[in-house]
Amino acid sequence: MCEILEIPRSSHYQSLQIVVSNREQENQELTKEIHLIYLESKGRYGAPKVHESLLTKGFSLSLKRVQRLMSKASIRSITKKKYRPYPSKEKVIQLDNLLKRDFTTQTINEKWVADITYIHTLKDGWGYLASVLDLHSKKIVGYFFHVL
Questions:
Q1: Does an H or E element contain 121, and which?
Q2: Is the separation of the CB atoms in 92 and 53 below 8 Å?
Q3: 63 near 51, Cβ under 8 Å?
Q4: pLDDT value of residue 79
Q5: Which residues are CB-contacts of 118 (< 8 A; sequence separation ≥ 6)?
Q6: What is each CA distance from 136 to 1, 60, 61, 99, 148, in whole angstroms?
Q7: Is the dihedral of CA 28, 34, 40, 44 positive or negative?
Q8: In terms of C-beta density within 10 A (0-12 exposed, 13-18 middle, 19 or more buried), how is residue 144 classed?
Q9: Residue 30: other Cβ atoms inside 10 A
Q10: pLDDT of residue 26
Q11: Is the dihedral of CA 35, 37, 39, 45 positive or negative?
Q12: Which strand (E) or helix (H) includes residue 115?
């Protein structure tokens, strides 16, 4: 077979005895450790924080090596782009102030006020909450929460 493929016999026998180098064994151990740290951080840690964790555990390696091992193992930190509100190009229509700062009421459902506020949640990021308040009972009549 070696004659047909035109390769030396020594190459064939050498391929049967492939030995994993010490560096490759160390890289495999480090990759397992990196994967554990990554799972403990719920996928949030990138190479700098994983590197810092490995240093505190007593490993001696560079940040570049951690980056290389993480990219080889297809490990990436979960990043979400921060929401930045931007100005709208639509013109705002100003409506008349019907209450004229008179917030007194005689009966329920006579006057309602509304408010919109932005809320940052850890799971979904930025969202907004719109709520409607009855001025007589001081209770929320309705609300709507939407994640951006």
A1: strand 112-121
A2: no
A3: yes
A4: 79
A5: 85, 126, 127, 128, 129
A6: 95, 67, 67, 14, 32
A7: negative
A8: exposed
A9: 19
A10: 93
A11: negative
A12: strand 112-121
Q: Average of pLDDT values for 124-137?
A: 92
Other CB atoms closer than 10 Å to residue 135's CB: what's the count?
A: 17
Q: What is the pLDDT of residues 23-59, one digit of tens each?
A: 999 999 999 999 999 999 988 899 999 999 999 999 9
**Tokens 């308040």, located at residue:** 133
What the block records as the tokens of 4 is 């047909």
| CB distance 45 to 37 below 8 Å | yes
Task: Report the alpha-carbon distance of residue 59 to residue 67 in Å, rounded.
Answer: 15
Phi, psi of 24 (to 5 degrees): -70, -40
Proportion of the chain above pLDDT 70, given as a percent:
100
Mean pLDDT value of segment 125-136: 93
CA distance 54 to 31: 11
Residue 112: is it exposed, middle or buried by C-beta count within 10 angstroms (0-12/13-18/19+)? middle
